[in-house]
Amino acid sequence: MQMNNKSLKLVLMFLIGLLSSNAYADVYKCKINGQTIFSDTRCADDADVLVIHKESEEKIAEREQRVAKEKEEKLVVERLLAEEQLQIQQKHNEVMNSPDYQKIKKQLRSAESDALIFKDILERSRPDISPYTNRGPYK
């Protein structure tokens, strides 16, 4: 059985279609020098784009609904997060301005001041011990 050129092209197109059934890409149809050419890149300015895979209107509507629902859920999560951050900031401010915190903060400053004074007195009473050398009784 002998195949003419047109039949061979059809068989090849069918086989290529089977092999790439999961690949969806634009296919361009061009007429160059009177011959029809199919290409995956635009082969002429007036190239026709062939639709290989078209989703049904139902699938498009389902996808749009899903995307809209995801956007709505994202907005809800963002709103909840903003509310939680506001509550954390309010609690932080409440703690920082509480009388107990201010009292403890004052006591801490006083203890730090007392420690510096004690350190100074200790260093003056034992001049033979320098924190920068290994001399003295604490080698």
Give an account of the 3D structure.
- The protein is mainly α.
- The chain has three helices and three strands.
- The protein is elongated.
- The chain starts with a helix and ends in a 14-residue tail after the last helix.
The biggest beta sheet, please?
3 strands, antiparallel
Helix content: 55-70%
Widest sheet: strand ordering:
2-1-3
Shape field: elongated
**Helix-and-strand structural type:** mainly alpha
Radius of gyration: 40 Å
For the termini, the CA-CA separation is 105 Å
Q: Please write the string of helix (H) and strand (E) elements.
A: HEEEHH
How many H/I helices? 3
Number of strands: 3
Mean pLDDT level: 79
Q: Tell me what portion of residues adopts beta-strand conformation.
A: 5-15%
Uncertain stretches: none
Give the secondary structure arrangement, pairings included.
Elements: H1 5-19, E1 27-32, E2 35-39, E3 48-50, H2 57-96, H3 99-125
Antiparallel strand pairs: 1-2, 1-3
What attributes does this structure have?
139 residues; mainly alpha; 3 helices; elongated
Briefly characterize the structure.
With 139 residues, this protein is mostly helical. The chain has 3 helices and 3 strands, in the order αβββαα.
